[in-house]
Design goal:
Elements: E1 2-6, H1 10-21, E2 25-29, H2 33-40, H3 51-60, E3 64-67, H4 70-76, E4 79-82, H5 97-107, E5 114-118, H6 126-137, E6 142-146, H7 156-161, E7 166-169, H8 173-183, E8 193-196, H9 198-229, H10 233-241, H11 262-275, H12 281-293, H13 296-304, E9 313-317, H14 332-342, E10 346-350, H15 355-362, E11 367-368, E12 381-384, H16 396-402, E13 407-410, H17 417-423, E14 426-428
Parallel strand pairs: 1-2, 1-4, 2-3, 4-5, 5-6, 7-8, 9-10, 9-12, 10-11, 12-13, 13-14
Helix pairs in contact: 1-3, 5-6, 9-11, 9-12, 11-12
Bound molecules: uridine-5'-diphosphate-xylopyranose.
Length: 436
């Protein structure tokens, strides 16, 4: 099939590349000329495991092209995906100007039937708004389909190629048939393609992310309670997770959820509920609790140092909001750094992928180490904010040779408690026994 993907951000690029992989001809469009040049020269602009291989293979096969020319892409395609940003506007509600702007541009270019697919996370009713833009500007028939993405950063290629489900919001038989054919190669194992109306599809995306954010936040609160009552959150997690109705996944407590999706989507769902005069109380609490959880490590640090960390120096391992990504949007690590600095401490950081992004965001507010051990030089304590594999089994002799005191505040529960007792550490993790 002939496909255009408008917007080559994270979602657009993964979508375009993975659609080319099953033999479709895909043209990706972006207004950023430098980025388009970079991609035309074979450079992948983001870090995403597995994307490189597919990206190069499909460029070589001539199935994946990049352009700034929207008219050319629209003309050559029957199916047009929009993967455009929906940043929170001033009031926290999603800003639709990119999507509606692109819809207007496309509506002025089309000369024959097209399917316009919205991949971005958008408030309920957006498909209707997009459709209205077309009705206003052209007589040509279009179907507007809502097709939310459920891609996790770090495993996005796998999530696209083998989705748990594909959600498609459309009531047009014609569009249903074409979309079912397009997605058929991705659901060969029998995972469902779920057709529904546009509004249900749009809400499904928010409901899924908000549910997961709630699940994590619930566990964070259970972890906080575990510390007070002397229970072990790992045991409780296993205890509840083996009930199929609850499930084992997304029950890991930590320093709060971050990233480009959960914080934004929870906030947007609250805002759109408000707009319908519905007070979404659970989600309001989720936002509040998560805000506190992002600096829970700093609370622990302050308690340990009796509220005085002026002049103390900390090593921080992990900056990305989760492993296998260089993404630092809403990353708890940034909140931790900010809180430590406000209390007069200094920080040296290390992350396997996200250092450059942090440098560009906060510059010389922290020191940057070349590796995880160098970060420990003269540190009073080590803090861990992201569960990268390289932090899971470190060389503790090396740690000891660098760090001033054997003190670790672990926001991701990476180490075995008995091991930390044997090694003689002060070890403060989330929802588990304090080792001191
Ligand atoms: C998420 C959704 O999973 C995906 O379906 C959607 O399309 C986009 O948003 P992503 O933001 O890439 O994907 O990350 P995810 O792996 O879901 O993690 C989100 C946050 O939750 C991270 O900050 C992670 O550290 C945190 N998390 C996750 C926990 O704290 N505990 C868990 O058990 C799981």
């Amino acid at each position: 099939m002939k496909i255009a993907v408008i917007g080559t951000g994270y979602v657009g690029l993964v979508t375009g590349t993975c659609l080319a992989e099953t033999g479709n001809d895909v043209i990706c469009v972006d207004i950023n000329e430098a980025k388009v040049k970079q991609m035309q020269n074979g450079e992948v602009p983001i870090y995403e495991p597995g994307l490189d291989l597919l990206f190069h293979r499909n460029i070589e096969q001539g199935r994946l092209l990049f352009t700034t020319n929207l008219a050319e892409a629209v003309e050559k395609s029957q199916i047009i995906f929009m993967a455009l940003p929906t940043p929170p506007g001033g009031d926290g509600a999603a800003d639709l100007s990119y999507i509606l702007g692109a819809a207007k541009d496309i509506s002025k270019l089309i000369t024959e039937y097209k399917i316009i697919i919205n991949k971005s996370t958008v408030p309920v009713g957006t498909a209707d708004k997009v459709k209205a833009v077309f009705v206003e500007n052209t007589n040509i028939e279009v179907d507007v389909v809502s097709n939310p993405e459920f891609l996790r950063e770090g495993v996005a290629v796998d999530d696209f190629m083998k989705p748990d489900r594909v959600v498609l919001g459309t009531r047009s038989e014609k569009a249903m048939k074409i979309m079912a054919d397009l997605y058929a190669p991705y659901v060969r194992q029998g995972n469902p393609v779920l057709f529904m109306d546009e509004r249900s599809s749009e809400l499904t995306k928010y409901a899924a992310n908000s549910f997961l954010a709630t699940k994590i936040t619930f566990m964070n609160e259970i972890a906080n309670l575990c510390e007070l009552v002397g229970a072990d959150v790992d045991a409780v997690r296993r205890g509840i997770g083996s009930d199929d109705r609850i499930g084992k996944r997304f029950l890991f407590p930590g320093v709060g959820y971050g990233g480009s999706c959960f914080p934004k989507d929870v906030q947007a769902l609250v805002k759109s509920s408000d707009a319908y005069a519905y007070d979404f109380q659970i989600l309001k609490s989720v936002m509040e609790v998560n805000e506190k959880q992002k600096t829970i490590l700093v609370d622990k640090v302050l308690k340990y140092y009796k509220n005085d960390i002026k002049g103390k120096h900390f090593a921080l391992w992990g900056l990305a909001f989760k492993p296998e990504t260089d993404d630092i949007r809403e990353a708890p690590a940034l909140y931790i750094i900010d809180a430590l600095k406000k209390q007069g401490a200094t920080v040296t950081v290390f992350d396997p992928e996200a250092m450059e992004n942090v440098k560009q965001t906060i510059g010389d507010q922290v020191n940057y180490a070349k590796n995880q051990y160098e970060a420990l030089e003269n540190a009073d304590a080590l803090l861990i904010a992201t569960e990268w594999s390289v932090f899971r089994n470190p060389d503790f002799d090396k740690i000891e040779s660098k760090i001033k005191n054997k003190v670790v505040f672990d926001g991701r529960n990476l180490y075995d408690l008995q091991k930390m007792i044997d090694l003689g550490y002060y070890y403060n993790s989330i929802g588990r026994k304090l080792i001191d």
